[in-house]
Amino acid sequence: MVKKSQSVLFDRTPSFSFEFFPPKTTEGARSLLSTILDLQKFRPSFVSVTYGAGGGSRELTRSVVHDLQDRGIPTVPHLTCVAHTEEEVEKVLEGYISAGARAIMALRGDPPRNRPYDPDKDAFKHAADLVRFIRQWEERQRLPYRLSIGVAGFCEGHPDTRNRIREMDHLKAKLDEGADYICTQLFFDNHAFFDYRDRCRLLGIDVPIIAGIMPVTSISSMNRMAELSAGTNFPARLLKAMLRAGGDKQSIERIGINYASNQCSELLDADVDGIHFYTLNRSKATLEIYRNLGINNYFDVDRIHMLNDIYNS
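The chain above was modelled as a monomer; its predicted structure follows.
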């Protein structure tokens, strides 16, 4: 049995968290700061910061981590296997720890797009290898705390693994190496998430499983999601609603926000461990979802539990 994490990231359940990416321009940095200020009032359990393909944004990621930690926001920087030696990963870990991070999201990652890449030179072939290395590094450093390590989950299947049974074995390997929680790829069909959660529990995986949500706010964003999350199902009822909008941007945005709000409401009713918003560095959609869920200036965990008890009685 894989033991449940005691991570401070989940000192309250359900957790609520956001994902940002490092901005590349001054304008992007200003926009991100505005987004952070908008969302900080909801007291997120944590925020995560992405890592460019092949580690291309590692310094930017570290800078964002430092800024967020200074604001008192628990921050989970991403770390990937691709195009890295053990020495490089150690330096990245040291940088994150010095910036104040106490958690890591360990991923296989995407290959670099604009430079030659030889996968045979990678020190880590799979995310499970990276999790094992982080735990070994942590022990060598004799840190006075235990890092919280998250890994990715794929409700509707990993695009590179057609054998779904084998895919779950890969997931369990990451937990067996010391990962503490799972954050899923974005999805639009809650039934896929519930089935995935049940399959995890059948395998003895008893760690928090965080649901990844990204509201559709435009047709172009939906196409981008389809590219980034190969294998994600776009349900017919969502597509029909989009078609009824007739290309009107405001209507499409409202449909996407309402759809994601209904997803979140159903997930909360089903006692989800947490919801992780892929924000694309914007706050509007997430703020609207909060309002639609009836959440005001804070995430009222006790009230959610009370309502769930009434609902399930």
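The first strand starts at residue 15 and ends at 20.
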